[in-house]
Every structure is written in C-alpha cells, then in structure tokens.
Amino acid sequence: MVGSTAIVGWMSSSSEGGMKMYSLDGKLTNQVILDKGELYMMNASIALASTSLVYMIFLLKATQPTTKLLFAIGPKCGFPNSPNYALFKHSDHISLVIDYSKG
Fold first, then answer.
1. Residues 22, 90 contacting (CB under 8 angstroms)
2. Of 54, 51, 72, nearest in space to 7 by CA
3. Is the pLDDT assigned to residue 31 strictly greater than 90?
4. HSE toward the beta carbon, residue 98, CA cutoff 13 A
5. Residue 37 belongs to what H/E stretch?
6. How far apart are CA 32 and CA 62, in angstroms?
7. How much is the pLDDT for 52?
8. Angle of CA points 60, 31, 75, to nearest 5°
9. Higher pLDDT residue, 64 or 81?
10. What contacts 53, CB < 8 A, 6 or more positions away?
C-alpha cells in the first residue's frame, strides 16, 4: 500500500458520512497525507443503503487505469474526524488485479 493513493469513505451510526483522499507515503500516521494523492476523483457521494451496506460512488479520471486495486474495511471503533481526519488501521482487506485485455 505504501506509495499508493487511498479513497476512504465512512458512514457513522447517525448517518453522517464523508469521503477523503489520502496519499500513503509510509506506514506511520504522519506519512498518511490527507487530501493528497495521484487520483482525480469527480462526482463523489456516499449513501447508506441499509444498516450494513454503504455505497461509495465516484468517478476517477485517469489516462491509464490501474490494474491493481485494494479494498479495505476499518474497525468499528471510530471514524475520521475533523480537522485532521486521521485513519484507523484497517481490520480486513482484499486485493485484485484487472486484466483489461480480456474485456
């Protein structure tokens, strides 16, 4: 994950949500940089579909789409808060590689 850009979304129990971009410059807290990254995100929104399902909707503008994606879920203990929107370590993750040549 180091050297990547993360798009992080959250929805609190009071149905207040948010979405932010982070540059993952390292594994230490001060190396996760808020509002910095290599992605250009457009038309972003977040919606609560049910008590256990949240939709993050956004468009990414890219000249060359990435073939490697990582999806992670954070702990239930907290959400990023103003002003620094610090992240908690993820509790689970899955990654995949996309082969665009196969359609």
1. no
2. 72
3. yes
4. 9
5. none
6. 22
7. 76
8. 75
9. 81
10. none
